[in-house]
Structure formats: structure tokens, C-alpha cells
Amino acid sequence: MGNVLIIDDEAGIRSILKDVLQDENYNVFLAEDGYKGLDMLNTEPIDLVILDVWLPNMGGIEVLKRIKEEYRDVEVIMISGHANINLAVKAVKMGAFDFLEKPLSLEKIITVVRNALELEKLKQENKQLRNNLFMEDEMVGSHPSMQKIREIIEQSAPTDARVLILGENGTGKELVARAIHLKSRRSQWPFVEVNCAAIPETLIESELFGHEKGAFTGAVSKRKGKFEIADRGTLFLDEIADMSLNTQAKVLRVIQELKFERVGGEESISVDVRLIAATNKVIEEEIKAKRFREDLYFRLNVIPIHVPPLRERTEDISALVKYFMKKFKPPALSEPKVISKDALEVLKKYPWPGNIRELKNVIERVNIMNDESIVSADILRECMPARGKRHAANWLSTFRGMPLNAARDSFEKELIKRKLEEDGYNLAQTAKDLGIYTSSLYGKIRKYAIEIKR
Ligand SMILES: Nc1ncnc2c1ncn2[C@@H]1O[C@H](COP(=O)(O)OP(=O)(O)OP(=O)(O)O)[C@@H](O)[C@H]1O
Ligand SMILES: [Mg+2]
Question: Which among 368, 373, 331 has a CA at the least distance from the CA of 453?
């Protein structure tokens, strides 16, 4: 089965092809010129187009070009009455699946159509696999707030509207950003992520806008910035509240003028980029404290999405646990582990400062650290981070009598240790959370001889 559109101005050809393909159980659509054909592509789920080269109004090559621009996944078979090898080569270079000459051999047509649809199917499967890789997890959860988020994603994805995603650490902001990109017409183009907190202030401009050779010490060659790399796709500005005011002003200018210059360059570059921004800070407070520009906030906040903390949607914990149990099922077990009722209660009572990421890590640990197929509350507690054992005031007193440098080191070590534990010893994640480079995190782990438990 498959939906085939025939674009040919000769009624005879249309009707013969229609009969042959319908006999083979394909759904057939007909158009007598390029404009009508393109309209049909817009409204019908076409998988394959059989396209005549010589058409009135808009030539077949132009139609091919537009199809490949707008419907990359649709296969096109060109047909022509005037064998012309140059034209055939050109069409195939432009992405046509094959080029057939009139008079058409009906057997040949059937074979080529079958092959083209086979390829199309493989491409679809491939795309599905790619999408699964692109999204680290499915978006699990049926709490009303999650349903609302799904709705906003569906509505906003097809538009180019800017989206601002707000929420605590590990709530799933990046997942939302990726879902929007996947469902947008830009999904074939790049999704480029910039973590504004992890890039040193001195480098962020060159990171965003690129630089010319010799623009500054270390700029040994010309380099494209993220805005350019994301052309036609989506640029995800993560942790925007950590941008300096100076960089904020420059980003604002790009948004207003849709063009920019590379660092050290004069040439004005325009790009077609959809912006999605995210932050875990309370942005209104950042604005009040004059750390974030209000005008930039208004520009970015066209569609706001609030991703709630896990403790505000504990109803979803059960479904999330089930999902992660399946994901982290040890190969030795035939079925994923289940948790006992009181274990679920433990999970529901815990405040989850690291939100879904933290829950995910706990469930992963449960699957690595023991063999029980039913997880009791006790087993679970062993896999959860120890928290709140000391009060802040007591805790400060541990530094009493220490010189500042020693106290600072001691604090740094403890903070890194705790973050690593929360993140399940995912170093890249911890570096990101702490807003430092992974290499710098490695240095500190070595300096403080922190044990990596994995
Ligand atoms: N609804 C969900 N269902 C399943 N997994 C989820 C869900 N939301 C988030 N996750 C997973 O939790 C982890 C954290 O999500 P994500 O990185 O999107 O959060 P974030 O809000 O961007 O965090 P941060 O502020 O720390 O950058 C990821 O592994 C993600 O795949
Ligand atoms: Mg994130």
C-alpha cells in the first residue's frame, strides 16, 4: 500500500497509470499540472510522486525542486517523452528516485514504484530510530500540567514562535525543547544547543556568533557560531539567565534584526533560526535585580511553558518509575522490576530537588545495585541520596577555625561530591549543573581525590 500522486498534463497517461497502480492496490491521486500537484501534496498524505518533465505553467524540474524542498521524504519518479540524458542526470542529482522514458513499460513502472516505496518505508523507519535517539526519553506523565504542556507543544511546534521554558533542574526542559523541534517543519535541520552557563563570558560571543581568523588570541581560523550552524533549524539557548548583560544586548539585537557579524568581522550574516530558551532561575527576580534585561525577556517569552517540579505532580511518579524500570531492566531479568506499595510511598514523600533526573538515577541504581525483582522500601532508601542530615547552621560550624582557602576547598569538595551523587556520577551533567567545563571538573575530582562510584 501507498499513496501515489501522478502529475502529468496528458489525460491518457494519467488514466493508464491510474488503472495499473490501482490494480496493484495503491491509492492514486491525479493532478494535471505542477501547481495542482503541489496543492495536493499539501493536503494528502502522499508517499510517492510520478512527475512528467514537460508540464505547462511550471516545468517538472521546478516542481521536483519544490517537492524536495518542502517534502524531503516524498520520493519522485520522473517521466519524459524526450529522452535526454542530461536532464535525467540533473533530476537524479536533485533527488529524483529514477527517470523513465515514454513510452512507458508498465512492468517497469510497477517495479520502480515498488522499489521507491520500499526505500521510502526504510527512510521512515530510519527516521523513527533517529527520533528515538534524539529524545533521551519519552515524555511520561498524565498530570494535568503535563497534558497542558503537550497541548502547547502541539500548538506551538508548527509555528516559528519563540518559546521560553521555565522550570527547576531536571524537570525536563530540554526534553520539551527537543519535542518542539521534532514536531516542527525544521526537524530535518539542526537542533543546536548552547548552554550559556557553561561557556566563559569571554568566549560566549564567539560561540554564538562565530569569529574571523585572528579576531582574538587563539582564534587561529575562521569559525561558525551556533546561530549560523542552526540556520533553518532551532537554536536552544539553555540557562539564558546566566548570560551577561553584554551578551544579552547582542542576542536582543540579533532577534530584532535577524542578522549579526562574526567577532572581528564586518560582513553581516542573516540566518533563519527559531529560538527556544530555558532557565531554571526565577526570571522575574533576575529582572528585578537587573541581572536580566526585561526587553529580552519579552522578546523570548512569546510562548511560556512552565515545567512543574516533580513534587507537584507526585501522581506521575508511578508511571515514571514503571517507565524507567523498563529502561534500566537488567538483562538477566525477564521482566522489569516492580516496587512495593510502601516503596512507592517513600518516593512520593521525597521532595526530589533534582526532579526527574534524580528519580531516573535512583531507579537506575536500584537496577544496578541489587537482584530483587520486587523493590522494598528499604532497598529503595539505600539507593536514595542521604539528605538533610545536618542543619545549615551546624554545617557552617564545620568550617569554624579554618582559613578561608581551606574552608572554600572543603565546601567545594562537598558540593561536588553531593552533585555527583545526585547525578548518578554523570560527569558531563554535574559539570553542566555546576556551570563549569567537564575538564575543570576532572581537575577538581583529582585535586580532592573524590571517589567515582561507577
Ligand atoms: N516527562 C518525562 N518522562 C521521562 N523522562 C523525562 C521526563 N522529563 C525529563 N526526563 C528525563 O529526565 C532527565 C532530565 O531532563 P532534562 O535534561 O530535559 O531536564 P532540564 O529541565 O533540562 O534539566 P536542567 O535544568 O538540569 O538542565 C533527562 O534524562 C530526561 O530524558
Ligand atoms: Mg537542561
Answer: 368
Predicted structure pTM score: 0.69
Instruction: Say yes or no to pLDDT of 355 above 90.
Output: yes
| Closest ligand to Cα 171 | 1
* Domain edges within the chain: 3-132, 154-306, 310-383, 392-447
- Cα-to-centroid distance, 355 and ligand 2 (Å): 12
Is residue 387 very low, low, confident or very high in pLDDT (cuts 50, 70, 90)? Answer: low
Supply 217's cell numbers: 588570541
What is the percentage of the chain residues whose pLDDT exceeds 90?
66
For the 310-383 domain, the top CATH level (class) is mainly alpha
- Among 206-210, 319-323, 414-418, which range has the highest average pLDDT? 319-323
What is the average pLDDT value for the chain, to the nearest integer? 91
At the topology level, CATH places domain 154-306 in: Rossmann fold (3.40.50)
For residues 225 and 98, give the distance between their C-alpha atoms in angstroms, rounded to a whole number: 38
137 lines ligand 1 (CB under 6 A): yes
Question: Which CATH number does 392-447 carry?
Answer: 1.10.10
Residue 246's identity, in one-letter code, is N
pLDDT at residue 454 in the model? 65
Q: Indicate if the pLDDT at residue 200 is higher than 50.
A: yes
- The grid coordinates of residue 153 equal 507543544
Dist. CA 48 → ligand 1 center (Å): 38
Closest CA to 63 of 72, 79, 47, 52: 52
pLDDT above 60 for 322:
yes
3-132 has CATH 1.20.1560.10 classification: no
> In ligand 1, which atom is closest to the CA atom of 169?
25
Burial 233-250 (b: 16+ CB within 10 A, else e): bbbbbbbbbbbeeebbeb
Output the CA 297–ligand 2 centroid distance in Å.
18
Which residue type does 391 have? H
Fold match between domain 3-132 and domain 310-383 = no
**Strand segments (E) across 169-283:** 191-195, 210-211, 223-224, 234-238, 259-261, 268-270, 274-279
